[in-house]
Design goal:
The complex is a heterotrimer.
Chain A (H helix, E strand, L loop, with lengths): L2 H16 L3 E6 L2 H5 L2 H14 L6 E6 L11 E3 L5 E2 L7 H6 L9 E2 L4 H4 L17 H6 L4 H8 L3 H11 L11 H10 L6 E6 L8 H8 L1 H15 L3 E6 L4 H16 L15 E6 L9 H8 L23 E5 H13 L1 H5 L2 E2 L2 E2 L1 E8 L5 E6 L4 H8 L9 E6 L5 E4 L23 E6 L4 H15 L5 H18 L5 H17 L3 H5 L2 H18 L17
Parallel strand pairs in A: 1-2, 6-7, 6-9, 7-8, 12-16
Antiparallel strand pairs in A: 1-3, 3-4, 4-5, 10-11, 12-13, 14-15, 14-16
Helix pairs in contact in A: 7-11, 7-14, 8-9, 8-11, 10-11, 10-12, 11-14, 17-18, 17-21, 18-19, 19-21
Chain B lengths: L2 E6 L2 E6 L4 H7 L23 E4 L6 E2 L10 E3 L3 H17 L14 H9 L15 E2 L5 E4 L8 H10 L4 E4 L6 E4 L16 H5 L5 E3 L12 H12 L5
Parallel strand pairs in B: 1-5
Antiparallel strand pairs in B: 1-2, 3-4, 3-5, 6-7, 7-10, 8-9
Helix pairs in contact in B: 2-3
Chain C lengths: L8 H17 L7 H12 L4 H10 L4 H10 L11 E6 L2 H5 L2 H10 L6 E6 L11 E3 L2 E3 L4 H22 L1
Parallel strand pairs in C: 1-2
Antiparallel strand pairs in C: 1-3, 3-4
Bound molecules: flavin mononucleotide, iron/sulfur cluster (2 copies) and FE2/S2 (inorganic) cluster (2 copies).
Flavin mononucleotide binds next to strand 9 and helix 20 of chain A.
């Protein structure tokens, strides 16, 4: 493909869409599909056909519209509204007008759920059918790659990413530009770009929603990275448990190849870049970068000690750039609009937006995107609509099994990479679970420890055997069988794992314990005395006296 | 190769560039505890017993993997490190079933020695008592999973030195087990050459020679260094 | 488990050919082990020992390494699946919404003999927790009653099926 063909494709598709009377986008990612979104789409297509409206009204699938808890969601280009809880029986009303039917389940752009958000990564949901590359191109897609391949030098791209201040979205928040520079400057001749799409936190579905909803954005980001660091081969390592994301990536790669946007001589330049998909097989630890690389090489997904870090020695010993899905999804906009543009959004030390998967005891659960540094209160209370009536907010868990809880006292703290660690939590990759007073924090700690115990790769002793012991103590606590000495051992083991484990899984495994101990020690003490304040743990009740 | 000067536990020592902290310390008579490291094999960095404090670095570093640097200041036995090591040994002792009284290696076991050296005289953790098999199918050797600490020395020696790759680790986390070939009994293994190297490198009584009674077996771990040097210098040619 | 499972002869050949082609496409390289195991499991439903042995030979990998990889990843099965499968999500949101109780209920249900019951971690529909995936289809906001109905539905369908056959 050349620049002219790209512009032509874009204009043709735009004209085609402008000629339509209506374009109805049905959310087609995991959440709404489990709620019956597939049936809604089929009913709509049938109704369009029955009315002879083909060519005037188009029904498409699209990326996550956000409010997963009230799915299936459908958005209309004509009315610019999103409708919630749509059933196949609603098709007629959607096509013939009958807005009355959607009283109480219509969300405009000014609805509190959307008003508080700033959508960059998710900007195409509602507009782009993830299975059509023309849709992506019509929204200006692949223009950034054109620029990167024909008008910018690799060093200029790296400089732009550095200027943006973008920090890795996989959890640790390492500055992306610095990492790119390390790989770009390495003298080795073979280099690789790897996209970490192994999102395995229990309760996190940001990355898969991006891949299911707008896969070309990630491919474009990776190709730009390939150009910037001098790699010819990229890999996406996707979670085996996300069949839909896998299918969409496959389709997108094939389309991009067919259009000449991946492969040799991209945009008539000497730049060539290929992307292959690798599929994980159910191991959370493969999200850790060295384990992920081992897995791509066909081995057991066990981490190896760093240094050397992947930018120095990665895939098959070559310098390797590994970034998260959302990190790559930011790249096209940075190249297109400039690093300074992104740097102006969000918090000064953590620019840009962050996608959160909001779930748990919250009125409106789903996928939300806000500027980094937005307070938890805004996310939970304004966007999420607070905890349902009759419940009381207790804490929010961020960062999954590696993170910690944020109690009500810190609702106004900005959510960014530097603030959260100060209160014993972390940004993590974006899972955000809201808990109310019916949640037992000791049980939450036990839940995450069980997860770490099950997911420990077993290589190093502190994590392999330590998580088992810590889980045993937490289980005894939730059963009212723990002794005071268990508490000191729990803290001793926490220190051991935090300081001696080989990889991030073991190093972070004690975090949920430490943060609940810090903010809810009284609950541990109650369990020691045989009482669960939340009433969740089934502790045998002693005879009343 | 150039020489580096560093400070270990208050002593100034010299080492060759590229040497690890572990081996530099060892050459100067400072013994850093270890279970997964064995001279001549690749490093796993898995037991975490050799972790040391290096001034200027926030995180503890494995001595077996960290290269010496000029003016590096290393502490190998601070109270915090000793406490960590004791707890790691306790974790290992509680993980499987270590009944020293019936072990052929009693008195010459690296795990037992380490426990004694670190002053581990009781285990504060709940023993897991897993139910694990003993494989006695091999003509000359045995494998008792109850005593295995998953250091992977056997896997590495079999792959890197003998070239047979009979052993590997199956499962993960607490369900990890050493396996031969497709999990068949050792005696049925088609790849095992019965060289016995794995038995010699195993730090515990997990891999043992048959026909010895309790506390009778002794292992020769020096042979590896000999083989590796011999290989480098091609001693068998001349 | 002594032989690679066979159904009809033709299908057997075809599966073997597909697997061979997949390995050839990866130049019989050991790096592709996980890809090949995925393909093999798709074809055969699980990974029996003789199949692993064959893959090991073809990719020139030590058998212990192949088994080591196959047992490291939870999605690989060394045993065949039952007629139906149910995966109860135990991600944070589903756990908090009672996933464990659903799992226990399903395991103990007298009608679940035909079901392979497992737990999973977050299937991306947290907003509709708890989630159970029955035979590949996600059920949202599952309750014990809904599951009960699902099991019964299948049971009934199964028995009418055999009745019709007689
Ligand atoms: C146990 C563990 C699991 C991880 N899981 C993920 C993951 O699912 N996705 C991800 O992008 N990064 C994950 N990471 C972080 C990666 O190791 C790595 O830092 C990240 O992919 C770098 O990309 P970024 O700089 O764009 O954030 C995980 C780390 C650990 C220790
Ligand atoms: S910390 Fe846990 S997951 Fe990481 S290497 Fe050690 S055992 Fe494996
Ligand atoms: S059998 Fe011995 S050498 Fe092999 S892993 Fe176990 S303890 Fe280590
Ligand atoms: S000897 Fe260094 S980690 Fe085991
Ligand atoms: S926790 Fe069950 S779908 Fe996310």
């Amino acid at each position: 493909m050349t620049g002219e063909v790209l512009a032509q494709t874009r204009d043709t598709e735009r004209e085609r869409q402008a000629g339509l009377r209506e374009r109805i986008a049905c959310c087609s990612v995991a959440g709404c599909l489990s709620a019956g979104g597939g049936e809604v789409r089929a009913a709509l297509e049938k109704a369009v056909n029955a009315r002879g409206l083909d060519g005037q009204v188009e029904v498409i699938g699209t990326g996550c519209l956000g409010l997963c808890s009230q799915g299936p969601l459908v958005s209309s280009a004509a009315t610019r509204q999103v409708y919630a809880g749509v059933t196949p029986e609603d098709s007629a009303a959607l096509l013939d007008g009958g807005a009355g039917r959607f009283q109480g389940r219509t969300l405009g752009p000014d609805h509190p759920f959307y008003a508080g958000q700033r959508r960059l990564i998710l900007e195409n949901s509602g507009r782009v059918d993830p299975e059509r590359i023309q849709d992506y191109i019509a929204q200006g897609g692949y223009r950034a790659l054109l620029r990167a391949a024909s008008a910018m030098s690799p060093a200029e791209i790296v400089a732009e990413v550095k200027r943006s201040g973008l920090r890795g979205r996989g959890g640790a928040g390492y500055p992306a530009g610095l990492k790119w520079e390390l790989v770009a400057r390495h003298p080795a001749s073979d280099r690789y770009v790897v996209c970490n799409a192994d999102e395995g936190d229990p309760g996190a579905f940001m990355n898969r929603s991006v891949l299911e909803g707008d896969p070309h954005r990630v491919l474009e980001g990776m190709a730009i990275a390939g150009r910037a660091v001098g790699a010819r081969q990229g890999y996406i390592y996707a979670r085996g448990e996300s069949p839909l994301a896998i299918a969409r990536i496959r389709t997108a790669i094939a389309q991009a190849q067919r259009e000449g946007l991946l492969g040799g001589r991209i945009f008539d330049s000497d730049f060539q870049f290929q992307i292959d998909l690798r599929i994980g097989a159910g191991a959370y630890v493969c999200g850790e970068e060295t384990a992920l690389l081992a897995s791509i090489e066909g081995r057991r997904g066990q981490p190896v000690p760093r240094p050397p870090y992947p930018p120095e020695r990665g895939l098959w010993g070559c310098p390797t750039l590994i970034n998260n899905v959302e990190t790559f999804a930011n790249i096209p906009a940075i190249v297109e609009r400039g690093g300074a543009w992104l740097a102006a959004i969000g918090a000064p030390a953590s620019p840009g937006t962050k996608v959160f998967a909001l779930a748990g005891r919250v009125a409106r659960a789903g996928l939300v995107e806000v500027p980094v540094g937005t307070s938890l209160r805004t996310i939970v209370m304004d966007i999420g609509g607070g905890v349902p009536a009759g419940c009381e907010f207790k804490a929010a868990q961020t960062g999954g099994p590696a993170g910690g809880c944020i109690p009500a006292a810190f609702l106004d703290l900005p959510m960014d990479y530097d603030t959260l660690p100060g209160i014993g939590s972390m940004m993590g990759s974006g899972g955000l679970i809201v808990m109310d007073t019916s949640t037992c924090m000791v049980d939450v700690a036990r839940f995450f420890m069980e997860f770490c115990m099950d997911e420990s790769c077993g290589k190093c002793v502190p994590c392999r055997a330590g998580t088992v012991q810590m889980h045993g103590i937490l289980r005894r606590l939730t059963r009212g069988e723990a002794a005071a000495s268990d508490m000191s051992m729990l803290e001793e083991l926490s220190r051991l794992l935090k300081e001696t484990s080989l990889c991030g899984l073991g190093l972070a495994a004690p975090n949920p314990v430490l943060s609940t101990l810090r903010h809810f020690r009284n609950e541990y003490e109650a369990h020691l005395a045989g009482r669960c304040p939340a009433g969740r743990c089934s502790i045998p009740v002693p005879e009343p006296v | 190769m150039s020489v580096r000067t560093l400070e270990v536990d208050g002593r100034t020592i010299t080492a060759l560039e590229g040497q690890t902290v572990f081996s530099a310390a060892w050459d100067s008579g400072i013994r850093i505890p270890r279970l997964c490291h064995l001279g001549g094999l690749s490093e796993a960095g898995a037991c975490r017993l050799c972790l040391v404090e290096i001034e200027g670095q926030k995180k503890l570093q494995p001595a077996c993997l960290t290269k010496v640097a000029e003016d590096m200041v290393v502490n190998t036995a601070t109270p915090a490190l000793l406490a960590h090591r004791r707890l790691i040994v306790e974790l290992l002792l509680a993980e499987r079933n270590h009944v020293c009284a019936v072990c052929v290696l009693n008195g010459a076991c690296e795990l037992q020695d380490l426990a004694a050296q670190l002053g581990v005289d009781h285990v504060r953790l709940r023993p897991q008592y897993p139910s694990l098999p003993v494989d006695l199918s091999h003509e000359r050797f045995g494998l008792d999973h109850n005593r295995c600490i998953l250091c992977t020395r056997c896997v590495r020696v079999c792959d890197e030195v003998e070239g047979a790759h009979t052993w590997d680790v199956a499962g993960r986390g607490r369900n990890s087990r050493i396996i031969s070939d497709l999990g068949e009994p050792w005696g049925d293994s088609g790849s095992c050459t019965s060289c016995g190297k794995c038995v010699q490198v195993c730090p515990t009584g997990a891999l043992f020679s048959k026909g010895r009674t309790v506390a009778e077996m002794r292992k020769d771990r020096g042979f590896l260094r000999y083989i590796m040097t011999a290989r480098e210098k091609k001693l068998w040619i001349s | 488990m002594d032989e690679i499972p066979q159904t009809a002869g033709a299908a057997h050949d075809e599966r073997e050919q597909i697997l061979d082609r997949a390995m050839a496409r990866h130049h019989n390289s050991g790096d592709a082990l996980i890809e090949i195991l995925h393909t093999a499991q798709q074809l055969y439903g699980y990974l029996p020992a003789p199949l692993l042995k064959k893959i090991a030979r073809r990719l020139m990998l030590p058998p212990s390494r192949v088994l080591g990889v196959a047992t490291f990843y939870h999605l690989f099965r060394l045993e065949p699946l039952r007629k139906h499968s149910a995966v109860v999500c135990l991600g944070t949101a589903c756990y908090e919404a009672g996933g464990t109780e659903l799992l226990e209920g399903l395991r103990q249900h007298p009608g679940s003999g035909d079901w392979s019951v497992a737990s999973g971690r977050c299937v991306g529909s947290c907003g509709l927790a708890p989630i159970v995936i029955c035979d590949g289809r996600a059920m949202a906001r599952v309750t014990a009653d809904k599951l009960e109905a699902r099991l019964r539905e299948d049971h009934d369908r199964g028995s009418t099926g055999t009745d019709a056959g007689h």
